[in-house]
Recover the amino acids of this structure.
């Protein structure tokens, strides 16, 4: 199986570059090798590589900057997936694409299923929804994995920001009224590899949108407190911590350009049933990531 991976230097792309290796040949491309802002380059690249699978881990992910860079955000998150879908259709490749909890407005009382109405409330969310729709409309074989609150030992994310701030400040003020499940980039890559392993083995893989997140629920405040607690338990990280207090605050007290969904919780039952998987508790991925960072 030949796999073309975009965004190989991002959080998820970096984990994918490792996890996909046992499944076949991986052509891992960063921005320097394939700039998704260039639709012509996408078509030419796919036509010359003729992959069996395209995994699109590249995206414009600067959620707040996107509010003032709408055109570029849509080019990367909507037009590029459309071009990838058309190119995948032309060579009968499967396109595996990632999307986000930001396609929802976060007003639902429970966990979101794939059938719930989308209502993005930011430029980033609208661009990612347009990307999902473009992939579906292209007519290629496709899977869209929506995920959320991504972290990993590679790249920029909330977990690593908290570890840095905990070394610099005595007090942290963290939002406590948004709910979600921190999801490890490694988990996303592992699940992707499981799905593509089925595909390689000729087992059925049904097209469509799937929710992929760790199980359980938390707030940014509780998550930050857990990260610091785990860091304290590692001598390599604990000794340098300055933080004494992590204060819960409201979203309204920490205004940002892009509106965030207050509830990001996903029902991952469809993914679990389709691929025989069980999503681990979010704490497990955080523990592993903190341990990995401590070992560096
Ligand atoms: N991060 C989250 O919390 C989160 C939550 C929900 C869903 N998602 C989705 O999950 C997927 C993976 O996200 P991630 O967290 O791994 O993001 P990330 O760490 O920001 O990585 C995104 C990658 O895309 C690349 N990229 C950006 N513009 C590009 C362009 N014009 N051409 C080629 N590559 C380009 C970046 O390249 P450079 O390294 O050169 O900048 C980066 O390596 C995305 O679809 C994202 O929307 C993420």
């Amino acid at each position: 199986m030949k796999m073309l991976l975009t965004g190989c230097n991002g959080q998820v792309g970096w984990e994918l570059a490792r996890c996909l290796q046992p499944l076949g040949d991986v052509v891992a491309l960063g921005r320097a090798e394939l700039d998704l802002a260039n639709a012509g380059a996408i078509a030419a690249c796919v036509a010359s590589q003729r992959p069996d699978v395209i995994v699109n881990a590249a995206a414009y992910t600067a959620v707040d900057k996107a509010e003032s860079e709408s055109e570029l955000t849509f080019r990367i998150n909507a037009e590029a997936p459309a071009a990838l879908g058309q190119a995948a259709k032309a060579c009968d490749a499967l396109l595996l694409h990632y999307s986000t909890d930001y396609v929802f407005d976060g007003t639902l009382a429970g966990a979101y299923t794939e059938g719930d109405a989308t209502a993005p409330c930011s430029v980033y969310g609208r661009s990612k929804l347009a990307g999902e729709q473009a992939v579906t409309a292209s007519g290629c074989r496709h899977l869209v994995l929506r995920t959320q609150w991504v972290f990993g030992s590679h790249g920029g994310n909330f977990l690593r920001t908290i570890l840095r701030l905990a070394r610099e400040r005595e007090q942290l003020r963290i939002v406590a009224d948004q709910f979600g499940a921190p999801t490890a980039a490694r988990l996303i890559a592992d699940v992707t590899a499981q799905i593509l392993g089925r595909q390689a083995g000729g087992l059925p893989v049904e097209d469509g949108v799937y929710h992929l997140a760790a199980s359980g629920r938390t707030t940014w405040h509780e998550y930050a407190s857990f990260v610091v607690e785990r860091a304290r338990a590692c001598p390599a990280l604990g000794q340098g911590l300055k933080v004494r207090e992590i204060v819960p605050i409201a979203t309204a007290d920490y205004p940002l350009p892009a509106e965030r969904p207050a509830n990001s919780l996903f029902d991952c039952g469809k993914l679990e049933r389709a691929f025989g998987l069980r999503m681990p508790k979010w704490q497990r991925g955080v523990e592993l990531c903190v341990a990995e960072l401590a070992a560096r």
In short: The longest helix spans residues 70-90. The two ends are 33 Å apart (CA to CA). The mean pLDDT is 97.
